[in-house]
């Protein structure tokens, strides 16, 4: 589907399938089209071209209240003059559900979101996290086939947001409803989601499971958006069944899994900061390197102790600046942190090297195939 606002293309020929019962995230920076995509699925924005299906049903032209979806917004949109009970029961009353059934379903939802006993409170008597739970209960009580969540944790403080990440995943697992979640927070998406679509400029840059996106990003953008990546240009110098040999501009040879290198003579290799091991070099250190590891020598430009780890910025002789996260495994003083100017060797396993650029290209269509009928198809 495509969405245009005048001359601006907000969503550009996007195709997407979401599995039944899946926790699916649309992840990307502001202005990438993720919220517009969500609003078209929910019926709040008209589709300029294309279609939206819920199972086998074309819902493209249906208004929101005729779709089997509900939406939880960032500002919760609770009715301030109604109690918690009446906020949750609102949709049921509009459907003329019997009173006894309303009481039963509201009680079940309050238990699900861990707010029993809050029935008579007004929204202004609740914390932000409690209001978010009420909004979630109000959306779920109508038993939608798909729940749409538009950055619902954005208004919460960091500690509460982390707690609610766990709670949202628990609730989704218990009830089994398909969740489509919009966020710009990569940690939030990776914590909760079964699959993530990373969006950029109205298109899906890469789609996959959190581990796949983090460990094997296909583009510079995905590598940089999902955490910190060290990226270095290299030429493909050879390959065997397991590994390809990559030559840096300074002549250093490194290895990467051969499956990641598909024919381009020039690629970019990457390695995550936590995969690197940093070793201090001195005059007695030999030049030999274990054949089963990649290695780069360099000089520490900056060292920052950040509690669980120490962050180093290391510059190699050919000018590459690499970030390293060294885990602080033992109780130690600041004196054990490597000093600025210290010569070091960075080593890592070849299988922890990923390759992006011309060697990878766009994601094959087969990566998005489903094992069962999709619940949402846009």
Q: Could you walk me through the main structural features you see in this protein, from its secondary elements to its overall organization?
A:
This protein has helices spanning about 35-40, 85-95, 100-110, 130-140, 160-175, 185-190, 210-215, 220-225; strands at about 5, 10, 15-20, 25, 55, 55-60, 70, 145-150, 180-185, 195-200, 205-210, 230-240, 245-250, 255, 265-270, 275-280, 295-305, 310-315, 320-325, 345-350, 355, 375. With about 375 residues, the protein is of the alpha+beta class. The protein folds into two domains: about 5-220, Rossmann fold (3-Layer(aba) Sandwich), CATH 3.40.50; about 230-355, Beta Barrel (OB fold (Dihydrolipoamide Acetyltransferase, E2P)). The chain has a six-stranded mixed sheet with strand order 7-8-9-4-10-11, with helices on both faces. Strands 14-13-12-15-21 form a five-stranded antiparallel sheet, with no helix packed on it. The protein has a five-stranded antiparallel sheet with strand order 16-20-17-18-19, with no helix packed on it. The N and C termini lie close together (about 5 Å).
């Amino acid at each position: 589907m495509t969405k245009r606002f005048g001359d601006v293309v907000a969503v550009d020929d996007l195709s997407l399938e979401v599995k039944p019962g899946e926790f699916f995230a649309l992840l990307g920076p502001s202005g990438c089209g993720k919220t517009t995509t969500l609003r078209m699925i929910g019926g709040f924005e008209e589709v300029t071209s294309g279609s939206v299906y819920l199972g086998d049903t074309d819902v493209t032209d249906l208004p929101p209240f005729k779709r089997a979806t509900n939406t939880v917004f960032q500002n919760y949109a609770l009715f301030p003059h109604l109690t918690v009970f009446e906020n949750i029961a609102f949709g049921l009353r509009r459907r003329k559900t019997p009173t006894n059934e309303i009481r039963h379903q509201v009680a079940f939802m309050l238990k699900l979101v861990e707010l029993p006993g809050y029935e008579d409170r007004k929204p202004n008597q609740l914390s932000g996290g409690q209001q978010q739970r009420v909004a979630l209960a109000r959306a779920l009580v109508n038993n939608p086939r798909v729940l749409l969540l538009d950055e619902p944790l954005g208004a919460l403080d960091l500690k509460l947001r982390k707690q609610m990440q766990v709670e949202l995943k628990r609730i989704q697992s218990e009830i089994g409803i398909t969740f489509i979640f919009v966020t710009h927070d990569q940690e939030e998406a990776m914590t909760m989601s079964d699959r993530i679509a990373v969006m950029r400029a109205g298109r899906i840059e890469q789609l996959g499971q959190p581990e796949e996106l983090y460990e094997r990003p296909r583009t510079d953008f995905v590598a940089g958006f999902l955490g910190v990546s060290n990226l270095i240009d290299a030429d493909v110098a050879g390959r065997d069944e397991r590994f390809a040999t990559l030559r840096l501009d300074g002549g250093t040879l490194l290895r990467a899994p051969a499956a990641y290198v598909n024919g381009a003579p020039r690629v970019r290799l990457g390695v995550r900061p936590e995969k690197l091991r940093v070793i201090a070099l001195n005059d007695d250190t030999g030049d030999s390197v274990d054949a089963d590891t990649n290695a780069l020598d360099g000089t520490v430009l900056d060292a920052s102790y950040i509690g669980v780890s120490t962050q180093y910025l290391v510059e190699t002789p050919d000018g590459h600046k690499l970030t390293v996260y060294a885990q602080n495994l033992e109780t130690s003083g600041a004196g054990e942190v490597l000093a600025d100017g210290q010569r070091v060797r960075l080593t890592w396993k070849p299988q922890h090297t990923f390759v992006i650029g011309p060697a990878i290209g766009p994601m094959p269509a087969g990566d998005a195939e489903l094992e069962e009928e999709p619940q949402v198809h846009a």
